[in-house]
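STRUCTURE REQUEST FORM
Protein name: Putative secreted protein
Source organism: Corynebacterium aurimucosum
Requested output: structure tokens
Priority: standard
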Amino acid sequence: MAHFTARQLKRFMGFWPPFLGAGIKIQEFADDGTRVVVSHRPNMLTKNAMGVAFGGTLSAMTDPFFMLASMHRLGKEYRIWDVAGEIKYLKPGRGTVTADMRIPEETYALIEEKTANGEKYLHWFDVDILDEEGDVVAHVRRQVYYRRKQK
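Status: completed
Returned output:
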């Protein structure tokens, strides 16, 4: 992946056809790769049969972002893949829903430590998707694969 600025990634992903069609909006992509905030407001084209946010869209809101933020932060010295995801739906998604994905500095330090000698490392990230009242609509887990490339 070519190295993009956080602003370029935010813009590009906002116009990426799957997100554009689903109405997923990138609100923030931190320059240091520690935070990505994404939102979605269901509309007539994106609601499910029950008139609320489609579950696939809720899952897609978090799909590439732990991987992309990590790639942005760690650079070309690493192989990074989004390898697994789990979602638990807890409440119908009415109105705007938001996922605030964070990768703390301590997590990046752990990734660098675990992959220092070229070993693979699998890390699980957790994020809640919240509605406008702050209630949890869905709990999402994403597993990301990391391996430092050998020189």
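Reviewer notes: The mean pLDDT is 90. Helices lie at 6-15, 17-22, 55-60, 65-74, 105-114.
Form closed.
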